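Task: sequence in, structure out. Protein: Isoquinoline 1-oxidoreductase, beta subunit.
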Amino acid sequence: MVQTKAEISRRNFLKSSSGVALFIGISGILPQLISCKDPNKIKEQLAQQPLTAWVKLSEDGLITIYNPAAEMGQGSMTSLPLIFAEEMDADWSMVKVEFSPQESEIYGSPGWNPGSKLMFTVGSRTTNSYYNVMRKAGAQARYVLMNSAAKHWEVPIEELTTSNSHVLHGRTNQKINYGALIPFLEMQETLPDFSEAQLKNPKDFKLVGKDIPRTEIPAKVIGSAMFAIDIRLPEMVYGVLERGNLHGSKPKLTNEAEILAMDGVVRIIPLDYAIGVVAKTLEQALSAKKSLKIDWSDSKASGHNSQEIYSTYEKIASQKEKGKVIIEIGDVSKAKKTAAKTYAVDYKNDYVYHAQMEPLNAVVKVAEDGGSAEVWVGSQQGMDTKLGVPKILGIAPENVKVHLQYLGGGFGRRSMNDFVEECANLAKEMAPLPVKLIWTREDDVTYGAFRPLSLQRLTANTDFKGNITSFSHTVVGDGGNLVASAVTNDHYDIPNQFAEWREASNGIRLKHWRAVGHGPNKFAIECMLDEIARDQGLDPLHLRRKLMAKAPRALATLEKVAELSNWNTPSVNGRAKGMAFVEHGSLGTGVCEISVDRSTGNIKVHHFWIALDAGVVVQPDNVKAQMEGGIIMGMSSVLKEQITIVNGRVQQSNYHDYNLLRMQDVPDSIETVILESAEVPEGVGETATPMVPCAIANAFLRLTGKPLRHLPFSPERVLQALNS
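Result:
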């Protein structure tokens, strides 16, 4: 449906305002949008086309709060509206939650880049970046209601209070439900710009910090929750693409006439890197795809062998010329000259696939005149909330409406819009028929966008007392921040630090994978500390305790997890414990207990303990669930998962040869303790996963005296380490 001029003008008006938009009930209220010289004109626009912003209130007291973030199982559909409801003093039993429109100028957060607003559910920043936005918006909604009640009752607003969706006047014993206030609501020319001190004191929270059931769980349990894979539209056709397993290769179809003659095939649509097939049913499309005969060109990835490339990376790490400097504190070279001992170790990690549960898919419907489009997709959104579709179709962003759906797993993969853009390319050719594009699991494995392969060369120096005086970290790999993030040691008191990234590109598709660079780089850093501690005859706990002396919050997690895991009590025979500290928004220290089957090389994780400081915790039970999920995903990637590439071609194709953790491999227990904190909430979705490789490797070192330095810890590599 083509958007009206009124809609476009309202959007531009909102974009020019700095306040929080609010739509309540039939009459409509736009707080802080009264900078317009003619308020009546705004009312006229609203009467024509109601604006939906943060909250909608109906006469029966039902409150609809809009969630601007993707919901992929991490709980944002509850946590963000809960923050709003807390400050609004809403009756949570009368709250329902819906996805907000994908309009970043209204619903975006400045949490990623001050000065701009993005809708981007990645990096464990959602709660952190929206915390103050939602608190202030909720407080302003409460103020509108209180101010309207004050005028209705003709009493000072200062005499009013709110509780459980009611405004109360204690002196006259009057009480009115928020819904009942709708006929008396009035616009204000200005609203208070609430400061932190004017918002609720966390000790007075009634919803935040309590175990509130997640809003979307009932629908998921009974099967009514809509994922993009569930979308069916009238006259919808199905699209699939053959992309091959050599990244960057160009296709030449040699049997086009044969494919077009197949039952149900509607069209063949070639792309630079793939051949698209559109058919009446998914089965017909997949059948045609199997029959495609394609000649593939060479590409930049040709000749790349993932298990042989490390020797090249080692040479790059040994070059005298520096790479891109990430951090430089003190003088590492000077510290090395006066060092009592120098340690130099290389750590490696292979490619890893996202393995999200729901296959990548999208539905796009382009209008017959090509001037507008609708998209149904599960996306982690991005720098462009219209997901690249306007550029593909050559239309204005305001003419693309995105219907965000639940995501069946993201882990960073669904912040990449390639699958949406592919669907838009097919839909452009098929307009006005809606097109549903589905990636098969084989598509996603062979043409995946992987966590990069990389090498980390660490060099550390100690003085004659065993103190670490310098720490140097060289990362070799492709992807910039994908490999080079998380190399700083802000919570460790090391006077001289240096970190750099040296690029090595092999033409393989890469993408953010849960925790991004924290996985490989924290693995290297935390393992290096334990190797130094072992050589110096120190307890890893004591070494970290000393390094964290100036970081009290980090130290508190260390002390708590040592207590939780009974660190000082020896494990039973055949087991050992290892620890690791990770900062990824929130601060966490983890300890695991493992055993090793010395005949098979299989590592068994028996227990995992975590102490976490995440600032103000909105949903404690959900935080624990995220930590548990992060640990299990970390174990899967560390013990099972591996993408290998031979002559540029991905060797794995599905779960029969890309192994995942099984139920029998899950620890007997995962215990999380959340430390009390009044700090701004921090992300928790990516704190647990990077703990796993270093904690397991450090437990293995403690148990066997042998280091594990190459991810994943396959049985073959474990046996090799044991026999070294």
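Residues 309-352+450-722 form a domain with the Aldehyde Oxidoreductase; domain 4 fold (CATH 3.30.365.10).
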